[in-house]
Amino acid sequence: MSEQVLYAQNSAWSDVIPIPQFDEGAKPVAPILYSEEYRDATDYFRGVVRAGEKSQRVLDLTEHLIRLNPGHYSVWQYRYDTLLAIKADLREELRRMDELATTHMKTYQVWHHRQLLIEQLHEPDSELDFIKTILDIDSKNYHTWGYRQWILAHFNREDLWIAEIRYVEQMLKKDLRNNSAWNHRFFVLWSNGRRESGEIQDEFLRTEIQFVKDNISLAPNNDAAWNYYRGVLQHTNQPFSTQLNFVKLYAEERDSDSDTDSEVVLDLDNPSPGPRAVLPCAIAMEFLAEIYEEKRTPEDIDKAISLYHKLTILDKIRKSYWEWRTAEAKRLLTE
Amino acid sequence: MTVTGQSTVASESGNALYLLFRKSQSSTIMNVNLLSEQRVIEDGYRTETSLEQWLVEDSFLEALPSDPSKISVLKRNEHLNYLAKLLLEGLNKRYAVQDASQPWLTFWILQSFSLLGVLLDPGNKQKVINTILAMQHPDGGFGGGPKQAPHILPTYAAICTLAIVGRPGKGGGWDEINRKGLYNFFLSLKQPDGSFHVMRDGEVDIRGTYCLLAVSTMLNILTPTLVEGVPDFVRSCQTYEGGFSCASYARFMEGQLLSFPRPSLGEAHGGYTSCALASWVFLKPFWEGTSTPSIDVKRTIRWLTKQQGGGANMGGFRGRTNKLVDGCYSWWVGGCFALLPALGIQIDSVPRHIDNADDAAHDNDSEWDDVEEELFNSQALQDYIIYLAQAPSGGLRDKPQKSPDAYHTLYNLAGLSIAQHRVRPVPSERDWIPQPGENLILLKEKRILPILSCKDDALDLDPSETADARDARRKRVFTEVYWWKEQESLSQVKGGSINRVNATHPLFNLTVSHIQPMLSYFYGQP
């Protein structure tokens, strides 16, 4: 591509009338100082659009432009129109796009173009494998996760959903602070649009709660895991108070007397924070305060307020928020 | 070309940028003892996420000057120079990747000027109007540049730019907007689940919803037909964390439309949450009687406040749980707090511990304990922007070690504005009813104005509506967005008036003085 002759000097394009971006005499503000190569290619792109040409060479031109500017949505749109019009091999197009998606993974259009192709091809399996290679490079790429979820929801195949649980497990094992992976877990297990929360089996819920507790015990100050924990309980209408024994372990100062191994009672249901965990966790204190709020007695509200007060000091950046939560807690008594 | 305190900026063409801001000569030294060195808590279990966080905190601590008073001010002139250069001299060829975002580039630059208190001279204004109009598609809607396909997002940026520089009358930009064509373009993008494609065959996401609602509101083309089903799409983007994702999934292969709740696609994210909350406010005039749908605002507030980074993060906002702070979320997340009053959350009633000002000056621990009128720490956010987001030679940035650009310049400045000012709906004026014989001119000066009939619009966009219903609906829309006003007594400019930027309307990210004339014009108000 770097050796490419300008379209203006290429006899194969001499039948196309190039169209400049601005009409003659225009004095635009904030003009982009384009490279010669880019200006030339866009002039010829406007030319083929004006002429309505849809051909193999239009695919070449649009690919050239996409490499120079992957965010040029009009080029993508016209490329897609052209692919359909000349009945191009969409499987080949998809493979051609693999490299572009890898290089420009933060561009909306590379993912949306794939989605259009997959909608035509109805072949999700290899696509999930491809997405995995991108997430191996950038495990939090927003577009890539959204696209993966679209594929799962769109094809809605039992085998894909099941394999996905294993995949998300691997991702969390790699980095249990990866919120994109926790979000994906929630998507796969709870918000895939297939299950109503009433149909959730107790055993399934119990296993899931255990999974998140085990993860929290490894690195307790991890908002991603706690948010998932809270999300699952709210989604399944479980009161927070059902989690009191576990949450208390993380919401309170470490009891220095109980460090001797002989005294430790092993409770597998409620794993304790590891020796290097920094306690108390602000996010666990908030959780505990909400457990107290659920009970709504004046004594419990006082306990919640006392925790919020501690949070104004421990989690100082959110002082204003904890004051607001205090006011909200007080309101519970008058409701 | 230089920009100086009180004079004008000369461009090569001889046009000038008038600086309305008069620079204060007294240099205020900020309280420099702002940094808590508290680092990411790794609990002895390092992962890629916590390592990245640790390294960024290192870079923040390094970026702080040993004598912080040296950069404790908003580098207004440097930013103006940076922006003026982009506008008048152009953008270097690396900006070619934003060739399809040209109205955005213009909006980012011009709205930054507005926040910095600078207006363009008539000659440059006209150039901007002409540039933007060259991007309007013959069938309606604006493209990312001349002769590009129409797309919702650049349309928003184009209309906002015309709010800043445009005017009624020939060549002024406002009357040249093809509103009928734009409305049809918007309708053509609508999906059965209440979402919109951002363009023909384009992706569906909530940015499109926000931009469409903002533009339709500004131009008085928002109809029940356009809005139908949109609330369900918006609320289905709310995730278990409380923030909003970019989209949701409504159909399975059999083609049936899922009833609510629909699975959200993607994780809770600052930009999409901003779009969702503002959309929710735009939709309010369409709630009929008791059938008001709901989002979980309290869960959203919890998520929003959790995005603010404490300790070595210096009060900046991140866009997702466990991600790194970035100056642009000063607006996307910080700006959400300014929408809360319109979503029924009363903040001013929160009881607060108020420090005595003299004591506070001597108390190192209280530098972030000033009177706080927001649910986030607006003082700390100002610190992040002033200390870490300003590039030394002008322009603002994501974080130290990143280059400034037009996008980060605007969204840092807009976040600074949100942290400094309180622009709120004003119910007493919204509900005011005109009395016979009152002087409209006088009322307008006092910003108290009765809402007249909005019937003068020749566009008959939604035949399902009666004329009276249309008029009533337009009044509701106008009322919802027009009566927002800066509560000047609640401003808190850290570092003194030298750091002050103008207030911005939280729904549009335009100054009130720019959005109100445009609304008045398109709603037929005097």
Please describe what this structure looks like.
- The complex is a heterodimer of chains A (335) and B (526).
- Chain A is mostly helical and 335 residues long.
- Chain A has a domain at 1-88: Serine Threonine Protein Phosphatase 5, Tetratricopeptide repeat (Alpha Horseshoe).
- In chain A, 63% of the residues lie in helices and 0% in strands.
- Chain A is elongated.
- With 526 residues, chain B is mainly alpha-helical.
- Chain B has 20 helices and seven strands.
- In chain B, helix 7 (206-218) runs parallel beside helix 10.
- Classes of the chains: A mainly alpha (335), B mainly alpha (526).
- Chain B: Keywords: Metal-binding, Prenyltransferase, Repeat, Transferase, Zinc.
- Chain B: Heterodimer of an alpha and a beta subunit.
- Chain B: It comes from Clathrus columnatus.
Concise structural overview:
Chain A: Its EC number is 2.5.1.58, 2.5.1.59. The complex is a heterodimer of chains A (335) and B (526). With 335 residues, chain A is an all-alpha fold.
Total number of strands of chain A? 0
Instruction: Going across the biggest sheet of chain B, name each strand in turn.
Output: 1-2-3
Global mean pLDDT of chain A: 93
**What is the level-2 CATH architecture name of the domain at 1-88 in chain A?**
Alpha Horseshoe
Kindly name the structural category of chain B: mainly alpha
**What separation lies between the terminal Cα atoms of chain A?**
70 Å
Radius of gyration computed on alpha carbons of chain B? 23 Å
Low-confidence stretches of chain B: 1-33, 349-370
CATH fold name of the domain at 1-88 in chain A, please? Serine Threonine Protein Phosphatase 5, Tetratricopeptide repeat
In which range does the helix fraction of chain B lie?
A: 25-40%
- What multimeric state do the chains show? heterodimer
**Secondary-structure class of chain A:** mainly alpha
